[in-house]
Request: fold
Amino acid sequence: MKCKVDQSAYTALVKEYSACVFGVCFGMLGNRHDAEDLAQQTLLKGFSDIHRLKRVECFGPWIIRIAKNLCLDFMRDEKRKRKVLDNKTRELVTDDAVCRDNDSSLFKLQSALTQLDKEYRLPLMLYYFDGQSAKSVAEELNISVAAAFTRISRARKKLRTIIGTPGGAS
Reply:
């Protein structure tokens, strides 16, 4: 038997986490329109699967994991994968609502992430934003652990260059 979901409570959770879900999707995909679509799919999937969530305090990590999984599935689709890889001119986040919801540091980071190639962006996102080990990143991307470390290291260097912080400190 499925539990009834309190729609107003879920609406409050959506308001609290929608910017974060969009940020994860945008960071992984680098395309605003695809990120908006997948963020919406994430929140809808969260609504339909909320009965699987055992503790409400775990909602944040749970909904973010759904977003990451949907993004990975999206990128595995061969047609979409080529579109993401070929899209060299990535649209920067300029929507006023997104700018208001995020502080300037987050906006700067999101903009910098869009400039990274997917080859570097995805391992970096999985390692830092998902908290996965380099071994887990390697397994998920079907690469060696050494290659995962190399890509993460190169991504950090490229981000420092893009953001303009040579030593990494702001």
